[in-house]
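User: Show me a protein chain along with its predicted structure.
Assistant: Here is one chain, sequence first, then structure tokens.
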Amino acid sequence: MNITVSGSTLLAAIVGLIVFVIGLIVVLRFLFAKRSSQKDLSKKETSNSLLIGRNKLPQVDVFRLSGTFFNVALAFSLSVVILAFSWTKYDSKIENTTMVLFKNAMLKYNLSDINEILQGTFLQQKKSADIKYLSIDSRNLSFPKETLFFALKGPRRSGHSFIKDAYKAGVRNFVVSKKVNTAEFKQATFILVNDSLEALQTLASHHRSTFHIPIVGITGSNGKTIVKEWLYTLLKDDVNIVKSPKSYNSQIGVPLSVWQINETHEMGLFEAGISEVGEMQKLHNIIQPDIVIFTNIGPAHQAGFRSTNQKIKEKLKLFGDSGMLIYCIDHDEIHDVLFKSKQTIRTLNWTCKKNAKADIRFELKKLQQHTEVKATYTKRSFRFNLPFVDESSIENALHCCCVLLCDSNYHNDELLNKKLAMLNSMPMRLELKAGINNCILVDDTYNTDYDSLKIALDFQDQQNKHLQNALILTDVFQSGKSEAKLYQEIADLVNSKKIERFIGIGPKIKKHQAKFKIKNKTFFSKTSSLTNKIGKLEFNNECILFKGARKFELETVVNSLSQKLHRTSLEINLNALTDNLNVYKKKLKEETKIMAMVKAFSYGAGTFEIANTLQYNKVDYLSVAYTDEGVALRKAGIETPIMVLNPDGNTYQLLLQRKLEPEVYSLSQIEMLSNFLIKNKTKQKLKIHLNIDTGMNRLGFDINEIPTLVNRLKEDNKFHVASIFSHLTSSEDLEEKEFTKEQVSLFKTAAENIEKGLNIRTIKHILNSNGIANYTKHQLDMVRLGIGLYGIDGSGKLQNKLTPVSQLKTYIAQIKQVKKGETVGYSRAGKAKKNLKIATVCIGYGDGLPRLAGNSKFSMQIMGQAAPIIGNICMDMCMLDVSHLENVKEGDEVVVFGSSKSLNALSKAAQTIPYEILTNIAERVKRIYYKD
């Protein structure tokens, strides 16, 4: 290889090398100075140096400057070297070497690097692209060629089962924990490791260790996501931040979050949640935080710990042995554990109590719509307002205030007020709403960045397959990337999805409109321009995703396209639905199938949205009560097998057309179905499900009818028996244990006789939600999961592991003063024994609120405090006693029920069961579906 270099070229290369060396010396010098100076800092001085490198310590400021100089020097040096080489005669090997240098500088990983990090073994190695993305889900793949798929072991199914799906979608790089038949995947690379999840965590930990930016880790029982998002809102204009998407805080979510860190980021915000002993140490190794915020402690995930103290000690492992811990000493249990701990922990603690000693003391004065705060820290006082009056929001905001006060740049009352005002009424979740003209609205308008956009687009893909997808996207801020690179990446992501209509809002995205390869695209400079033309755009039968920065106020567009329904709403947490499903999965064998009950409007929670989430989570069967419910699901794009419990003879044609499988419970029903199939000359066998009555005495074949049933099915080849099942009468009542065992025994005998008589092997199922908890060993081939999916446990064994899916909310329409001796409501049932303050709220028995719950038998929640119903409940409203609530006002939110405790309390007041409360919520009550 011969290279000819001119004198000017050589001089340019030497100058570049000198600049590089100078930059390296400068940064090493100040790095050493920074570390030396920090050894002698006091506790309070050190706390001021931890935040984001924007503080009063001159060493840190110069360090950041030197870091910038180093980057400039490096970039300049590389530019000179490349320019020099461009003037030379060289072969392809040098060109390839230069490209490798840039890839390493951008922290891209090739498969050899990853295999070395994971200490794995190549089962098969093929040439592949550099890895940019990690995936554990074959259903969500935007850039498969640059993706590394980890086959994880799930609660019941292994990710190895989905390698074929991922390969078919274009993935060519896999990490597996057991050998696979590589001959089926001739173009793929496989890395074999002992444990795929540990490998994912190891890779993320390695990736984190290559970046030296301050990281804030957030743990606690509640408020983690809110504190993270609020911190991001407060700091994003000053520093480029990487954060956990949504509530990615698990053993899987944390490594996927940390993998997002790149060379443009200056700070990280990551949540860490645990459910059992040993998990937090792994998360600490991945996050490696400099500051830890411990929000609070509560009953969430208590089942995995012996005591609250043990849970606190486990959560404190996120802290490790360096950095600083922020917590509130008013949480006595946390403070006691820390006080008794032998571990040397540097803390920044705070209090709202007058006589308590803490590093920061907050004095609060609640007014009608905001709270005045006086903060005392390092002998200085700061005054600012919080746009909240409820306790939980104030606590979350004060945690954020502590982080701000760590940085002397925020020691300014005017700046603090300006920052904290940004937290007012910020939504924190992705919501699914009904829109006009049969549209579905995916409202994700509280922030916008590349990673949250990807999650939102994946969620949109899961919705109704018969609707066209539309995306309304605004300018994206604080990415740390060049504008051209940022919008190219966003356009590549959007172009990889099935988006039929695209609307861009903002001058920057409009400038890059040519990058979006979508035929139906429109761009506006501001949101008002879109709202002025919204009627002319004619949205029909579309799933519309709204994703935008807060300043664009996309909520105005969402409101204009939303169905104008009852303001009272039932909010359904789709994350909780999935979590509850996984609670039951963990009790089942891997091969046991799950039938999910979505009858009765999915226990009031809605039909398609629930069924769609269950289908996405790969349940084996869905069950509805009537044929029209199944037809509606099929029209909405649900493809999972569906059993119909009560098929009417007039709907048999629809059963065939929509591939619905009827329950069969009598010989006469078999005759009707057989005659229908003969009349329609149906060649394909109809799948049926045989119901055996073992003691319910409702529907089903009696035990003594089994021989006749077998003979009848033998002589008729028109049916395929998909399953045999029965209903337990008292699965929740252990006092009826013997009767339940007898039912199980009768069923097993009956099912065995049917299978032998017909010479078939079919699916057998008898357990419902309570049966899964109390009689797990009788799970047979399949279980039927109903009320447990929605967070209600009647067995007494699983409630602390389940999360209620539904929360019923309304609002205060009017507040009145009622004098002593006056009455409230119909029949003068509510009598004032003293002067009262009464709030009229917009929910009544027409919405499903039982009349029996009136007259102080049940209380709703306003700002976390109980407000009892006074007087009789009306059709469309009821009245609450709010005399004890100082800051209550018209328009305030009212929670009817949200926890299992409040739902049970309402059921008790109405002398009924939770099932009836949930299924009686009227369809006029707006359903809002959301994901945290």
